[in-house]
Specification:
35% of the residues lie in helices and 28% in strands. It has 288 residues and is of the alpha+beta class. The chain has two domains: 143 residues, no CATH class; 110 residues, Alpha Horseshoe (Serine Threonine Protein Phosphatase 5, Tetratricopeptide repeat).
């Protein structure tokens, strides 16, 4: 009998040892997580949050009380990260990661960006808010079962961060100085380009011409590209620069020089490229 009890105890001990002391069961969350990232110009904006569902419940003023801080989602606190300085509703906010709390109201919402990005769902400390903005909520274009953040009205310089849930939509405008960042990036790239690289300064110039910004810098970079290797591409860019400056007569004359270089240029410009450029040149000539 004693031997039997010892054997049973040994088997039990073996089974207990086979179960990890910190065993965890991974199961789906009722409110699944989501990460959404949008690039605005050269700035990345990333929101990490969990998506509660309506599930037939009354939401505003009930499940989510009015005039009280809300983690803006479920589970952990929602966070938002910016790779560069931005403005939110016209107010400056430094690059970094923040917890995003809101205070929903019937006619006005407050968005609070809190420096404690690791704050727990109930640990919001208003003293750590670095920025607060107020916006008006509105009706969503369609009912949304699972709470969702999205980026709407995207431009090279801004986007609206919109929260849609149930029949409500509320959004804040996030903006960044893309032109200044593009200029700084272009200057850095051209400065670091190899001595025989005619494409880097040309690429920088083309961006400025396309967006009609910093045209003096564009002229300098075209000259740099031509000094390395004069060809159809940088000659055509000079024509587009003249046009951007309102000098259509000079643009048309420069276009003829660019087209004369096309047969000698490598890599050879495509037929589509040449056709489109000829069309532009004709328009400049008509205006000149």
């Amino acid at each position: 009998m004693k031997n039997t009890l010892v054997a049973v105890a040994a088997v039990a001990a073996t089974l207990i040892a086979a179960v990890p002391g910190e065993a965890q069961v991974k199961l789906p969350r009722p409110s699944p997580g989501q990460t959404v990232t949008q690039t605005i110009g050269l700035t990345d904006v990333t929101v990490v949050y969990s998506r509660p569902g309506v599930k037939g419940r009354p939401i505003w003023g009930t499940l989510v009380p009015y005039d009280k801080p809300w983690r803006t989602g479920a589970n952990e606190s929602t966070t938002i990260a910016f790779t560069d300085d931005v403005t939110v509703e016209g107010k400056k906010l430094a690059a970094g990661t923040y917890s995003l709390y809101t205070i929903p109201g019937k006619t006005e919402w407050t968005f609070a960006f809190n420096s404690d990005a690791k704050a727990g769902a109930g640990d919001w400390d208003a003293k750590k808010d670095v920025l607060r903005v107020t916006v008006k909520p509105g009706d969503a274009p369609a009912a949304t079962e699972w709470m969702q953040f999205s980026f709407d009205n995207l431009t090279p310089n801004s986007a609206d961060l919109a929260l849609n849930w149930e029949k409500l939509r509320v959004a804040v405008k996030i903006a960044t100085d893309t032109d200044a960042k593009a200029l700084a990036s272009a200057k850095d790239g051209v400065a670091k380009a190899k001595a025989d690289d005619w494409q880097a300064p040309l690429s920088a110039a083309n961006y400025m011409i396309q967006n009609k910004i910093h045209l003096d810098d564009a002229a300098t970079w075209i000259a740099k590209s031509e000094s390395v290797k004069a060809n159809y591409y940088n000659a055509a860019a000079k024509a587009r620069l003249f046009a951007a400056q309102g000098k259509t007569k000079e643009a048309a004359a420069q276009a003829e020089k660019a087209l004369a270089l096309a047969p000698k240029t490598e890599p050879k410009p495509s037929d589509e490229n040449i056709a489109a450029f000829k069309k532009q040149a004709a328009e400049w000539g008509a205006k000149g």
